[in-house]
Each structure stands twice: as C-alpha cells, then as structure tokens.
TrEMBL record:
Residues 4-80 form the CIDE-N domain. GO terms for cellular component: cytoplasm; nucleus. It comes from Spizella passerina. It holds the Pfam family DFF40. It is found in: Cytoplasm; Nucleus. PANTHER family: CASPASE-ACTIVATED DNASE. It comes from the Eukaryota. Keywords: Apoptosis, Cytoplasm, Hydrolase, Nuclease, Nucleus. This is DNA fragmentation factor subunit beta. The gene is Dffb. GO terms for molecular function: DNA endonuclease activity; hydrolase activity. Nuclease that induces DNA fragmentation and chromatin condensation during apoptosis. Degrades naked DNA and induces apoptotic morphology.
Amino acid sequence: MAELLRPFRLRGCGSPQKFGVAAGSLRGLLRKGCRLLQLPLAGSRLCLYEDGTELTESYFRALPAQTELVLLGPGQSWRGCASDIERLLAAFCSQQGAVVEAARRLLTDERAPHRQKLLADLIHNLSENILAEDKEEDKKWFEGLESRFKNKSSYLRHSCESRMRGYMREVTGFISNVHPSARDAYRGIIDLMAEKLKSVKYNGCYFDRREKEEAARLCTAEGWFSCQVP
C-alpha cells in the first residue's frame, strides 16, 4: 500500500528560503530534501525549525502537515529560532546597511499589518545613529527638543524623572477616592514615597545608558531597552 504523502515546509540551516516537499515517511522526506538542497544523504537529518528537536520516524508520523523543518547536513546543528536570531545579529554587526535594505524589501512584499509594523520599527531602529551621544553627532535626533539638552543621556534622564513625577501626581490626585478614615495614612505614605524619590533623583538613572551601575538602569550601555515583564 502506497504511503500517504503529506506536505512540509523545508529549509536548510544556512538560508531562510523554504521549499514545499511532500513525503510519506521520514526517510523519503530526508532523501528528497538532500536531493533538493544538494546535501549528502549519509549523516544528514531533519529537525523542527521551532526548537531543533531531531525527528524520528514515529515523531514524523505525528507531525501535522505544513510543519516547518530544517535539514541538517553532516556536522551542522540547529538550536531553534535562536539560530536565526544569532545569524541576524551577526549580519547586523557586519553589514548593517544590507540588513536595513533586506528589511525594506521584505516590507514592500509584506501584507500582514502586524508584520508590517515590526519591519517598519526594525528599519527605523537600525537606521538610527544609536551609538552617537552628543547633539553634534546626531542633530536629527534632537529635533524638537529643548536646546538645553546637549546629549541623549541627559534628555532620557530628564524624561524618566518627568515620568516619575507624573506618576506621583496621579497617586496624589487619587486621594479623593480614599475613604476619609484612611486619608491621613495615605498622605503619610505619599510623603514617604515623595521623599524617597527625591533622594534618588526620581530614578532618572533608569533611562541613562551612561549610568555605570548596570543594575541601576533599564537599558543596555548602547541604549537598547527590553521588555521588563513576563
């Protein structure tokens, strides 16, 4: 009885290009993939794109159609999506201009709104002169800001301090919603919070990439921020 062919999306570990390949067995898919990507059959194997799990025949039969797989040649390895991210970062470090241009080409063909936004944000961030610190090095970044700001860190420190003051105003303004019997205690807590914030200069160091104490800032030394919640 002939094996039922199922379609899969196949790629090599050195290229993001995907191919549609149909097969009814792991051996059959491996043989077709090696022929397509010009890899030797001996020593080659298939794994999941998502996490790098290598396939067995029984695992293969449980996979849904259109699962994305990576074909590995002898000596090659795949650690899941992290491998693609590592390659992107390596390309960014060595060929930033080429990465921006590639992202622009992807954006031209992309129709999904969410992906369009991600690509647009990537192009914007990569095109910025993020390592420049002083106004003379990146005048465009300072357009629309008060002239008193001479470097990026001073503005971002001020921005953080302003945000903290704004939070305190919101907390103070909430007092009318507190039960009258608890308002004195609430005011006491607000006063303590205000004094603490003043003593640490409203935590302006959170946004200051020049802050020497790494634990005291929320950004990297280059100025990149990451999500701080799960």
